[in-house]
Amino acid sequence: MIEVVAAMIWKDDKFLICQRPENKARALLWEFVGGKVEPGETKRQALIRECKEELGITISVGEELMKVTHEYPDITVNITLFSAVIAQGEPTLLEHNDMRWITAKELSEYRFCPADEAIVKMIEEGF
Fold first, then answer.
1. Residue 39 region by backbone torsions, left for phi larger than 0, else alpha for psi between -120 and 50, else beta
2. Nearest by Cα to 114 from 71, 83, 75, 82
3. Could you say which of 26, 45, 63, 113 has the lowest number of CB atoms within 10 Å?
């Protein structure tokens, strides 16, 4: 099982979602920015690093919102979702195909990675 972190980055009443690149697994599906926790990192440290690498921003990590375990045919991931805000910088597409600031009501307009579907459901139910 791979430990993964994800950020629900807030700006006013919207949060950021990102579209996976064409050349990666689960291509062009939407997700919350994040990635694998490397050896020796805390989950919060990993999330800060991933946001810097993928979007060129520094985030302030808030509370843990939920955990999800999902089995793909090729990998099992244990995702921890954190609330976050941008402390410095503007999001830039360094890895993703696209990104959007959306409200919870707009979630159904996007096709998310299967592992993120439980997160989407939680948001839609007003966690």
1. beta
2. 71
3. 63
Q: How far apart are the first and last CA of the chain?
A: 26
Per-residue pLDDT tens over the stretch 65-85: 999 999 999 889 999 999 999
**58 is in which domain, residue-wise?**
2-124
**What is the rounded distance in angstroms from the CA atom of residue 94 to the CA atom of residue 86?**
16
Per-position DSSP letters for 13-28, written without gaps between them: TEEEEEEPPTTSTTTT
Task: Give the up-direction half-sphere exposure of residue 113: CA atoms within 13 A in the CB hemisphere.
Answer: 25
Total count of domains within the chain = 1
Is 27 in contact with 111 (CB distance < 8 Å)?
no
CATH code of residue 22: 3.90.79.10
